[in-house]
């Protein structure tokens, strides 16, 4: 668990926004940022975000729900949300654990994800749900 990123304290209730501010989220992060990671699946390697995870109840849309665009592909299990104005990925309902959201750490107020240093990359190309 990460309680500080650079000089920014990760609060239990931490605000996150897209680039233009049309979407505002409140994340519940009682243990700070847990399990920061990248993924090499076809969408994640293109968007390049570092993500953390919270339970579905851990994200509250404060404002701008009408500005979120849903994108799904392949199995249509994961739900990826983007701001329809600035295009920033804010969060997604995870395919590997649909009881959680992954969130874009770069959207957290005051956080520069490059201050995290080395971040593990998950193998999303060979997704566990694709194995028989």
Automatic annotation (TrEMBL):
Keyword hit for Metal-binding: yes
Keyword field: Metal-binding, Zinc
Keyword Metal-binding: yes
Residues covered by the CENP-V/GFA domain: 14-130
Similarity annotation: Belongs to the Gfa family.
Protein name according to UniProt: GFA family protein
Origin species: Vibrio zhugei
Lineage: Bacteria, Pseudomonadati, Pseudomonadota, Gammaproteobacteria, Vibrionales
């Amino acid at each position: 668990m990460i309680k500080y990123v650079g000089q920014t304290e990760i609060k239990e209730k931490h605000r996150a926004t897209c680039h233009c501010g049309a979407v505002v989220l409140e994340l519940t992060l009682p243990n700070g940022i847990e399990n920061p990671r990248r993924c090499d699946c076809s969408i994640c390697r293109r968007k390049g975000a570092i993500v953390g995870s919270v339970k579905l109840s851990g994200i509250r849309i404060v404002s701008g729900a009408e500005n979120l665009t849903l994108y799904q592909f392949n199995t249509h299990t994961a739900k990826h949300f983007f701001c329809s104005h600035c295009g920033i990925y804010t969060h997604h309902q995870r395919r590997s654990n649909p009881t959680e959201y992954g969130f874009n750490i770069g959207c957290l107020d005051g956080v520069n994800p490059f201050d995290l240093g080395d971040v593990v990359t998950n193998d999303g190309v060979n997704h566990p749900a694709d194995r028989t």
